[in-house]
Amino acid sequence: MKQKKTAAAVIAAMLAGFAVAKAPEADPALVDEVVAQLMGQPDLHTEQSQKPDGQAIRNDAVRRLQTLEVLKNGALQAGLDKDKGVQNRFKIAEASFYAQEYVRFLERSETVSEDELRAFYERQTRMVKLQQVGFATEGEARQAQQLLLKGLSFEGLMKRYPNDEQAFDGFIMAQQLPEPLASQFAGMNRGDVTRDPIRLGGRYYLFKLSEVGKNPDAQPFELVRNQLEQGLKQEKARLKIDALLEENGVKP
Description:
Blueprint: H1 2-17, H2 28-39, H3 54-77, H4 84-109, H5 114-125, E1 126-135, H6 138-149, H7 154-160, E2 172-173, H8 181-186, E3 198-200, E4 203-214, H9 225-247
Antiparallel strand pairs: 1-2, 1-4, 3-4
Helix pairs in contact: 2-3, 4-9, 5-9
C-alpha cells in the first residue's frame, strides 16, 4: 500500500511539472490603450464588411501585453538593463517617445478659423508661372535690378541676360517651390518682382510672378476640409517647434 502511495505521489509530481504556467496579468488600463491604438489603425479589418470583433481585438491586445511583459522580464533576468548600450538606446527611445507625444499635443491644442482654412486651401491649390534672369554674382544681379528701376521691362531684362532655363513656361504648384522662393512668393501678386536677388544653386536670380492660377485637379474645399484642418494644425505646430528649438540654441 505504501509503495502504491509513493508511486502515485511520483506521478502527481511529474504531472505538476507539465502543468501550464500562468500567463502574467495584463493591466486593464493598458489593454484599453492598446485596443484604442488597434481600433485607430486605418487598415484594421479592411477585408471585412462587418463590424470589427471587439472581443477578438481585446484578446489580441492582452496577448500583446503579455508577450511584452514576458520578454521584458527575460531581458531583466539576462541583465540587459545593466548593459550600457541598452541603457543608451532606452534613453533615445524614451526621448523620441516624449518628443512625438509633445508634437501630437501641440497639434491637438491648435485652433484654426474658417478664414485661415480657406487661405490655407488657396495656398495649397495655387499655381504660378515664373520668369527669371540669373547671374553669377549678387553684384551683377543688383546691377541688373537697377535697369528695372530705370524702366526696363522684365521681358527686356530676360532678353539682355538669356539662359536656357527661361525656356520653361509652365505652371508649377506654389507649395512645391523651394525655399526661399516659397516664402518670397507667398505674399506676391501677378506682375510682382522679387525685391532682392535670390541665391539658388550657387547663382543669383531675379524673379517675376507672371501668372497665377489654381490647380484644375484640386478637390472642392468642403470635401477636403478635415484634411486641411489637420494640415494647418500641423503647420502651426511646426512653427512653434521651430521657435522652441531656436530659443534653446538648436537650428531647426
